[in-house]
Amino acid sequence: REQIDLAVIEGDGIGPEVIAEARKVLRAALPEGVTLNETEYPFGANHYLATGEILDDASLDQLAKHDAILLGAVGGDPADPKLAGGILERGLLLKLRFAFDHYINLRPSKLWPSAISPLANPGEIDFVVVREGTEGLYVGNGGVVRAGTEHEVANELSVNTARGVERTVRYAFELAMTRDRRLTLVHKKNVLVNAGVLWNRIVNEVAEEYPEVAVDYLHIDAATIFFVTNPSRFDVIVTDNIFGDIITDLAGAVTGGIGLAASGNLNPEGAFPSMFEPVHGSAPDIAGTGKADPTAAILSVALLLQHFGFDDAAKRVEAACEQDLRNRSGEARSTSEIGDAIAALLA
Ligand code: NAD
Ligand code: IPM
Ligand code: MN
Asked: Is the CB of 12 under 6 A from ligand 2?
């Protein structure tokens, strides 16, 4: 590949702040002879409030033509009633994940040497959460009956298809084969028996094709214990959409903070552009202060480079982030100071 045609959606809050740094680093990391075409799309809270538009079909068609999407964060002022009900999160972020069949939400967690974990004895932490990205509780299946009455019932139905689970599980096994060959299914099969049994059965079936991979199972509640007491026990974790959402914020926290946690929303077959974004959100509490750590967005650029097979460039970005973490001496640096430092380390 000699060119990357990238769509950039900065989004809201700290989104534009961290994406500016991610783009700096991406440009600095690009292998010789590869050109980068960047197209900015204005989607997010301000665009919606000004135009009434979240993400129309014509724009979706435009986005589909790019090789990949780099996204900051979605979610405007939480106090604004016009943005209530997750209208942007569902209408923009989840719409993209579903429209572009991002069935793998890949979220690596690594305690970089000299990153500071809040755990007393973190040990070595290096695992990847393979979060299913297009099903589960996120499909918007459900509704409210007898709204506003004392008999109101609010339902969200978790959708788990054999195909959707199997393709995710297969991806996780393939990934495990490139790593330490340990795979943990995280679910809640003791209570969510329908979906839990399906996930468990498919993991066991696919496991027969991967005898080298050691497979185990944890209920989601117990899994949260081990994230804190023994995170080294994890290599590849495969789980559904909601559990994957929750444990990846926890994983970010134990590996040095959510400001370091990267993610890729992948359509592995390449039928649609994959999308790369930090795990964190728009952080309205620190937006505009320069306190946002852009490392999560920058490490998401490393995932993007890896996705296109630019493994050396991806490793260089990771190494620069690692070196920058080593160089941190405790004094506060701004978002752009961190981005500049990482870009300089690459040069
Ligand atoms: P959040 O991730 O935005 O913030 C949680 C906490 O982490 C805050 O204290 C914030 O200051 C801190 N934080 C986040 N990113 C940081 C960074 N790079 N450096 C330093 N500190 C950082 O989660 P939230 O407050 O629950 O959500 C805020 C908004 O973002 C909501 O509208 C939510 O729906 C949206 N959201 C969007 C995405 C996304 O676009 N992928 C992800 C999560 C949340
Ligand atoms: C994330 C976010 C999203 C999710 C929200 C904003 C829809 O929390 O990317 O982790 O739940 O997937
Ligand atoms: Mn989340």
From this structure: no
Residues 6+ apart with CB under 8 A from 293: 18, 257, 259, 260, 335, 338
CB 128 within 8 A of CB 177: no
- 93 pocket-lining for ligand 2 (C-beta < 6 Å): yes
Parse the chain into domains and list their residue ranges: 1-102+262-347
Tell me, in angstroms, the distance from the centre of ligand 2 to residue 135's CA. 13
What's the CATH fold of domain 1-102+262-347? Isopropylmalate Dehydrogenase (3.40.718)
pTM over cut 0.80: yes
Please give the single-letter amino acid code of residue 11: G
Report the pocket of ligand 1 as residue ranges, CB < 6 Å. 14, 18, 73-75, 78, 89, 93, 258-259, 277, 280-286, 292-293, 296
| β-strand partners of 108 | 128
Cα–Cα distance for residue pair 132/128, rounded to 1 Å: 13
Print pLDDT tens along the chain (347 aa): 899 999 999 999 999 999 999 999 999 999 999 999 999 999 999 999 999 999 999 999 999 999 999 999 999 999 999 999 999 999 999 999 999 999 999 999 999 988 999 999 999 999 999 999 999 999 999 999 999 999 999 999 999 999 999 999 999 999 999 999 999 999 999 999 999 999 999 999 999 999 999 999 999 999 999 999 999 999 999 999 999 999 999 999 999 999 999 999 999 999 999 999 999 999 999 999 999 999 999 999 999 999 999 999 999 999 999 999 999 988 899 999 999 999 999 98
